[in-house]
TrEMBL record:
GO terms for molecular function: DNA binding; DNA-binding transcription factor activity. The keyword Transcription regulation applies. This is HTH cro/C1-type domain-containing protein. It comes from Rhizobium freirei PRF 81. Keywords: DNA-binding, Transcription, Transcription regulation. The keyword Cell membrane does not apply. It holds the Pfam family Peptidase_M78. It comes from the Bacteria. CDD domains: HTH_XRE (cd00093). InterPro entries: Cro/C1-type_HTH, HTH_RamB, IrrE_HExxH, Lambda_DNA-bd_dom_sf, ScfR_C, TransReg_Diox_bact_type. Belongs to the short-chain fatty acyl-CoA assimilation regulator (ScfR) family.
């Protein structure tokens, strides 16, 4: 069997410098030439079995330390350089391994610095929320990346764009799709723009949902997508053609600071327009009120998915013809909040959305089931929340499927107007905006101490949480 070569130059160098030895002195002790030791330390020669045994005998070195896996800190460094601020700086893992091998102390320092930065960013976000509750704006909490800027701008305003809504209703009326909006949109694309819609197998388009080929005048859709998502992609392409001016006007009104932020926001507005096209405002509001905001019923009525129907509920805020002010949040199984929108802006200060007791987290244990409950904030304000998982694109065999969960909620005063609220128990779940901002005592679900209170650990008594506070 071929002998595995061990390149451990940086480790040998650390042993030598830690003992205060020159290359000549160490080479003499190991019965090799200084030039050969120099090549070993530069990883241009491997360590032989004889040298490993010699190092262990002369300098009492642990052989496992010399033969250990490459780059002990490489995994943690990979997390650091996956941050959007540093993404693209390191083209591959090899440079991370080399950094972890050659300068482990510097790598550890970089990892600690990054974790401190993340901690400070989280604390700054929490403090900004506290200030916003008092009507003050923290300029230091401004967006740091184009995606953050877009999310902050969309979360802080009503999820309603009047120009797009009017244009979508007008086009839907002219299109007169009847019961086959997918067929009507495909026919319109072909007759008006010469664009044909084609489905492609995963092996042909492995990493894309949709691609428009200007040369062949074809719109390619991935077979990974559900029929609902395929329909939305077609509607998005139509919206970009029909509502170009309206989307541009709403984009200008957002007053974003960078071209990259504008590009991201244009995509979000195009998706908004696709929902407005598939579910025209007047018809959707009327159906929602008749069905008492039954999301599954609305999905069946308009031929859309649960996620699309739920998202559309957050947009019903036309002056003089508005529905219940719903808000929506989507998370993944790790608890990352992927998007937040609201009919009047996402209620960050009143609701927060960061409490681990929310039923959106429990939804992952019951895929496809609708969970509804009454929640109560520390100030007594109540909310009705509805949660359910949604499935991502079709996964290949052996590939882990993407599953996220939606939470859609509204003020509890609307409970009797909503089909989910009528069957609920009067008991409520005590929640908070987020652990860092919540001062509920004895919470079994608490994951972090509040930033507003000092810890109150007592050697003589232990509370229900490891983060007891005064």
């Amino acid at each position: 069997m071929a002998e595995r070569k061990i390149f451990a130059g940086p480790r040998v160098r650390r042993i030598r410098t830690g003992l205060g030895l020159t290359q000549t002195t160490m080479a003499q002790a190991l019965d090799i030439s200084p030039s050969y030791l120099n090549l070993i330390e530069r990883n241009q020669r491997p360590l032989t079995v004889q040298l490993l045994l010699k190092l262990s005998a002369v300098y009492k070195v642990d052989l496992d330390e010399l033969q250990g896996g490459q780059g002990g800190n490489a995994g943690q460094l990979r997390e650091v350089f996956a941050d959007p601020l540093l993404a693209g700086e390191i083209p591959g893992d090899q440079e991370l391994i080399e950094l972890a091998e050659a300068a482990p102390n510097a790598a550890n320092g970089m990892i600690r610095l990054y974790r401190a930065y993340r901690e400070q960013a989280a604390r700054l976000s929490d403090l900004a929320e506290l200030l916003s509750r008092e009507g003050r704006v923290a300029d230091v909490a401004g967006p740091r990346l184009p995606l953050d800027e877009v999310h902050d701008r969309l979360q802080g305003r009503a999820n309603f764009f009047a120009r797009i809504e009017d244009a979508a209703e007008g086009f839907h009326t002219r299109l007169a799709p009847g019961d086959d909006i997918a067929g009507a949109l495909k026919t319109w694309l072909k007759s008006e723009h010469g664009v044909a819609v084609r489905l492609l197998p995963v092996r042909v388009m492995p990493g894309l949902r949709r691609r428009y080929d200007r040369h062949s005048m074809r719109l390619f859709l991935s077979e990974r997508l559900s029929p609902f998502d395929q329909l939305r992609e077609i509607a998005t392409e139509v919206s970009l053609l029909v509502m170009r001016e309206e989307i541009a006007a709403e984009l200008d009104a957002l007053a974003l600071s960078t071209p990259e932020a504008r590009r991201i926001a244009r995509f979000e507005l195009a998706r908004y327009a696709s929902h407005a096209l598939l579910m025209p405002y007047g018809a959707y509001l009327s159906a929602a009120q008749r069905l008492h905001y039954d999301i599954d019923g609305l999905g069946a009525r308009f031929g859309v998915s649960f996620e699309q129907a739920a998202t559309r509920l957050t947009t019903l805020q036309r002056p003089g013809a508005s529905g219940i002010a719903f808000f929506l949040m989507e998370i993944d199984s790790a608890g990352h909040r992927l998007r937040k929108v609201g009919a009047q802006g996402f209620p960050q200060a009143r609701f927060g959305g960061g409490c681990p007791k929310l039923n959106v987290h429990a939804a992952f244990a019951q895929p496809g089931q609708i969970l509804a409950e009454v929640t109560e904030m520390p100030d007594g304000m109540g909310f009705l929340t509805i949660s359910r998982t949604i499935e991502g694109p079709q996964a290949d065999f052996g590939e882990r499927a993407r599953r996220t969960a939606l939470l859609i909620g509204c003020d509890l005063v609307h409970r009797d107007e909503i089909v989910y609220g009528k069957a609920l128990s009067p008991m409520s779940v005590a929640i908070g905006p987020a652990c860092r901002l919540c001062e509920r005592q004895g919470c079994l679900a608490r994951a972090e101490p509040p930033v507003t209170r000092p810890l109150g650990l007592d050697e003589m008594a232990a509370g229900l949480s490891v983060f007891d506070f005064q």
